[in-house]
């Protein structure tokens, strides 16, 4: 129990507070770099890796094998949440954010340096899978720390808006990842791109990581965490406390995030695979034209994120997210009709609608998930829920969607997305409003 003298002493030596601009830049820049690294893998997993790291034969089998390595990172992410969450809740948000960024960056550069299957045989996909695991480990600790950096430095009435800052890193990272591949495709021949050009964005990420580290090292520790440390509000094993005392919140957080993940990876990884696969199995668009359409559509993603944050601050997290989840269900039922048209304009509309809705559902998550947990397990709890949902909603989404379409058509893919949204809706109905929660 703190005495009045102890509180007075703490007030005298209160930690420095990060400025709003520093919070915005540090939370956004780090996640933009992390998502850039993550998305260049997603893009390469569809258009490059099936031809570089796997034995050639049936192209569908090679693509499915490549997408399987894509899924490995999602298994690693909850492990990263437990690992980095432990240190984030015990040592501090700042140091842990730096460590997670370095883990992600090193793994990404290694992917860019790996020899091909033709050079080292089966060791190539094994090393690719190991580096991909490292990517997932780093991202597992990144998002939760960035979200806490934003929300724990935010005014109470603007917490969802501040929580949308790290969310903006997703469309920014996605835009530059696809943009880099698009520029390389324009500058290089197909042979040059497949031989060495695809490696450039992976290796260049080292420069981006150095920039991100510079920004984050200049941060002050979160005042909420510093106050909790001063009051000795910490636990010896955050992951154990999370499961023992906050299991229900963790499960609800996981399913609240489920539809968001499923929607995004169907809209990006699966849609690119389907869009660039020759007809009749796909739409037959060129790689460059589809990348261009995704880059235009992702603008809607970025614009919708802060709008959703403002709505969540105004009307509450729960009602805002319920309305958006119902919108996902409607979109999922319209999914087959729009995408199967084959018209470039209709496909462009499909991508824009889907990614704009993605921005709406993603925006409030930066505040909603951290608000479910107390300070002593907040890093672990928010990260674990976010990344456990990645296994259920994202890791297998491109694979399942590809399989469903091959066997039952696009309508089955739409039903799959709708079913995930229904699970999210149930979790939201079972949850409580967190807008007025004190961090």
TrEMBL record:
Q: Which InterPro entries match?
A: MFS, MFS_dom, MFS_sugar_transport-like, MFS_trans_sf, MHS_symport, Sugar_transporter_CS
As given in the record, the signal peptide range reads: none
Bilayer-spanning residue ranges: 23-52, 64-84, 96-114, 160-184, 196-215, 249-270, 290-312, 319-339, 345-369, 381-402, 408-430
Q: Which Gene3D superfamilies match?
A: MFS general substrate transporter like domains
Give the Major facilitator superfamily (MFS) profile domain ranges.
Answer: 23-435
Q: Which Pfam families match?
A: MFS_1, Sugar_tr
Cellular location(s)? Cell inner membrane
Quote one Gene Ontology molecular function term. Answer: transmembrane transporter activity
Name of the protein this chain belongs to: Metabolite-proton symporter
Its source organism is Rosenbergiella nectarea
